[in-house]
Amino acid sequence: MRKPIKSILIGFFIIFPMLNLFSQADPVWDDTSKNSWNTAFQKVEIPSSLDGKTQKAYFYSSKSKTKKPLIVSLHTWSGDYTQKDPLCNEILARDWNYIHPDFRGANNKSDAMVSPKVISDIEDAIQYALKNSNSDPEDVHIVGVSGGGLATLAAYMNIKYPVKSFSAWAPIADLESWYWESKGRKQKYAADILKATSTDTVFNTEEARRRSPLLQAFPKDLRKDAKLYIYEGIHDGYTGSVPITHSINMYNRLVGELKYGSAKLDEIMPKASNDSDLVSEKEIISLVTKQYNPAFDKKNKLFDRNIYLSREFGNIQLKIFEGGHEQIPQALGLIPVKNTINLKYNILTLGDSNGEIKAGWVAQLKKMMPNANIVNISKSGRTIGFDNGGRKDLNALANIDDYLNEANAKIGNKKYDFIIVCLGTNDTKKDFADKQKEVVANFDTLLSKITQHPLSKKSKPKFIYVTPPPMRTKNVLEKYNGGNERIEQLIPQFTSIAQAKKFAVIDVYHPLLGILDYYAEDGIHMAGSGQEIIAADIIETIQKIKK
Questions:
Q1: Which regions in the chain score pLDDT beneath 70?
Q2: pLDDT attached to residue 28
Q3: What residue numbers bound the domain in which 394 lies?
Q4: Which residues contact 22 (CB under 8 A, 6 or more apart)?
Q5: Cα 202 to Cα 179: distance, rounded to the nearest angstrom
Q6: β-bridge mates for residue 56, sequence order
Q7: Domain holding 365: CATH number?
């Protein structure tokens, strides 16, 4: 088994010695700075079920009354549980359960570096979170980057808990190979591996192999319903510390074992030249040397990143994307959490472009509530009370009776259980900057008209107002300049008015601050994974109202 790994990995460095001829500083994703954690995250202590030692973790328990996913986020190679985690803001926005365990800290000692104690600690962290939160035990997900990617792969190969998905970003798969790769690059990781696997100054090859996910037994039956996602930036190994071959070899080994019953790469790789489910040696060499794929599918994207190679077999996926040694900011939006619910309400939605677009919040509601009847009368460019761009048909206040008459015709003899309004973004455009007092007055009048319309009298629906989401403050179209600041000033006034008229108010503005840019390429309209956050908040509110 060792021969093909060396021929693929080490052979690259013989053919292309430039990979070994420079020394690199720690990559950004191994930044061990300890940020000031938001007070919503609680520092907890978990006794090890293996040796009784206490492992610490940062933990967040969802405030929802319904079950939510559990995200187990694993720190990087040189970090520990206190390490800054870029996922935290979005965890709060989504209100998912979360735990960030220590699992024996930095990988520079024997107890760490995916030892049996580490595996036990990760399982203990899962059990602690399940016991102390509303986590759905069937919706547990492990995610990690770099050294956390190594731990994610090791968890996939070793833990007993039926985790739903594992997302490994820029992972190390083979500690023996990475020892020599790090030594050649003059990086500290070689010394760390030596400390963790050896009792003297001689590198313990066998111990490094025992700890390498690439070489461990594949628990196929245990993982038959679990998804494994391996993500790697094409430039890693050049601008980062882990060659992309770790990800590719791990993928090939697992798929090869599923398809051909062999865990040996020297038996799998010859088949790869004629098997499109695998990655061939020719493709590997091309990717490593070009750091590009001239034939990549321009329609195949990882949000805003080009994907140069994509493979999938069963529940195992590999994506090599435009990037380096990193986890992209939208990582949580890629995790396959449970997001459908059996609610059979009749719902009317009135919004602007975020409600009308193909992947908007209304589309997400329809996907997440497949048995609900949702009538959507949202329209791109719609305002609360202005003729946007001179178009009277976009003025909600001027046309609300017509809108609601149309909605009444669509529902027929049935009644609406909910009317959901999400307007205000277009009223904060630069063109209306000096008319913000009118915006407030228009909003008051619009909600009054909605509640007093014959449709509302007939249906007696529950009313929900969703605040406008934030918008980017820089690099947006000129017509939106200053819009975010105006939205922020309007929200308290909108909230007060809506609540006075018996609308439940959902503030999506503040939770989405700081993560909008992850999902909104234009700074205004989020991709579907971001719009899901709004839809989930609406569903949460619907459930609270109807209880």
A1: 1-29, 35, 547
A2: 64
A3: 346-546
A4: 185
A5: 12
A6: 45
A7: 3.40.50.1110
